[in-house]
Amino acid sequence: MRAREAAESLVTATLEERIAIARAHAAAERRGDLEATLATLDPDPLYELLPVGRAFRGMDAARRYYEHFFANFRPLARASEMHAEWANEVGVAQEYTIHLHLADGSEERHRLIAILTFGKEKLSGERVYASDRLLRLMFGPAYDLAI
Questions:
Q1: Distances in Å between the alpha carbon of 107 and those of 46, 71, 128, 138?
Q2: Angle ∠(8,141,27) on CA atoms, nearest 5
Q3: Domain residue spans in the chain?
């Protein structure tokens, strides 16, 4: 099921269908597909950056984040490994290690947990648990959109 189709049918979705939309969101991120990624989100998504305690809300802020993510962060990410995935009626949690190759030639490896939360029709947002360093690299200007 394509991300857009899955997102449109989530109103009466089963848990399996909700998990499918979360996976479609993650797949759209991996492909670098901005519009398909945004299509999986409710109109007012909430992104929480933890444990630093920053958050931002709304589709404009999400678009700003993903524009930075695809243009600036994804080119740094040379590889990633998913270690685990959990799901329940609240959302889907995924644990990753991301390998970065920075512009100065240095390499970094970061562990993170991303929880894709279910909304009424699509995903209501995401809670990302990672180091402050990784969060700043991933979220760029959106990091400072704290609410």
A1: 30, 19, 21, 15
A2: 35
A3: 3-144
* Burial call 94-124: b when 16+ CB within 10 Å, e when fewer: bebebebeeeeeeeeebebbbbbbbbebbbb
pLDDT tens-digit profile of 119-130? 988 999 999 999
Burial of 69 (0-12, 13-18, 19+ CB in 10 A): buried
pLDDT at site 147: 66
For the residues 97-123, what does the mean pLDDT come to? 96
pTM: 0.86
Is 3-144 in CATH node 3.90.25.10? no
